[in-house]
Amino acid sequence: MESAEERTKRIGRELLESGRIRGLLALIADKSGVRPGLLQKPEEVNSLVLQPRYLLAPTVHTLQAVDSKTTLGIVARGCDERALVELAKAGQVDLQHVVLIGLACDEETARQCGCSRPYPRSIDVGEKVERVGGAEPSGETMVHQGKQIKWTAELARCLKCYGCRNACPLCICPECKIGLDMWVQTGVVPPDPLSFHLIRAYHLADKCIDCGSCQDACPAGIPLRKLHQYLLKVLEERLAYVPGLDANQQSPLFTDLKRAPFCGPEIPRWMSTLGGNEQGELKGE
Amino acid sequence: MGVMFLEIFMQRLGKSAEPKVLIFACDWCPGLGSDRAGQDRLSLPSCFRLVRVDCAAQVSGEWVIEAFSGGIDGIMVMGCHLDACRHQGANHRAHKKLETLRWLLSGLGIPPEKLCLSWGMGREALPFQEEVQKFVSTLKSLKTEKKGINSLQRGRAATQEITPSLPSPLEGEGEGGGENS
What we know:
CATH architecture of chain B: 3-Layer(aba) Sandwich
Largest sheet of chain A: 5 strands, mixed
Distance between the termini of chain B: 47 Å
Radius of gyration of chain B: 20 Å
Strand order of the largest sheet of chain B: 2-1-3-4
Shape of chain B: globular
Order of helices and strands of chain A: HEEEHEHEHEEHHHHH
Helix content of chain B: 40-55%
Number of helices of chain A: 9
Structural class of chain B: alpha/beta
CATH topology of chain B: Rossmann fold
CATH class of chain B: Alpha Beta
Shape of chain A: globular
Largest interface: A-B, 47 and 38 residues
Structural class of chain A: alpha/beta
Number of domains of chain B: 1
Number of strands of chain A: 7
Helix content of chain A: 25-40%
Oligomer: heterodimer
Order of helices and strands of chain B: HEHEHEHEHHHH
Strand content of chain A: 5-15%
Number of helices of chain B: 8
């Protein structure tokens, strides 16, 4: 009965030996600790480890920016896969040249993370565990450690280290708006919470895949994930959209109201008087 | 947009304008509506400034967020009728994006009524007057809010109050060193 790690190593070695992939992105343990790395020879795969949870998807984006034609392998958790799907939607990653070794998070990791889908679509290693912990079942997502979040107090601890933005797999804009002095004043710490955090949350509204990298990266321990989870929940209820699931599904914020209408409890009255023909095409579309 | 423009608008609004309203009106329907309202000399509240944009979809979330944090009380984004945007239905997308922003703001405790989205005016002066008057009276009734929500809005002022003044590590090395080591 091979362990998850042994199974991953075996699959990795087979993929490298067969030449299907030129390199495997995985976590490597050596004498300096655990770090992400690119394994290129089958014998290097011996140092592969699976813990801790670390998002390798941003590295795919960085490597493909240099060379997008070489096939890479990646040990991908559920969050890695969702990040790659969202990056592919934005045209930033070519999924044809990425081979995923699907790793399902074990119960301990799933509980620490609390995301809604701790497994990728096709699982090669590990047993599927459904969502554990995470958002409170009553639907109150703005609760952290049992208490309602006071955002003014929480965001006042922000150092403007940009760790959240740097760690996020989907914060890839070359000219990041919150790095510009026009929107976020230079030299003011903590930054104006509306400018920095709200602009970031708003820009990621239809892209956040709930990986938790932002909260993990924050040195001040701000529950950033709750902010994004709130908006994701609203988007799911009102626009029936969950990012990261289908690479062919376009975000509703880029389509008109006929193709992606509002749903949920409070549909405005005028929605029923929208024009268009039977196919739902508007004139000029 | 940004901080500089906002300061100019706040100056032009004047200290006595209450509540301070910023209207983004697209050149086409609401722009014509507002022009007609002016020609017909309809009575409008004096506490707003209007910014003409080519299309309401040009209004990005950053503008709205920046305006709220700079002290504007209410923002209206006015565009053409939903099927009538000449820019290939861009007002649909604008509505969805700004609605998402409204949900985000309301999650943080900023009342969603502060952002008004209005589609369709088309040289109709009376609807323009009605919308603006209705919005201003909604804002006035929102004035009785708790201080907590207001402090998140006046982001700049709030952050200056709560940033503690830490002693620089370089000065007071003799006195401060004893506590920190």
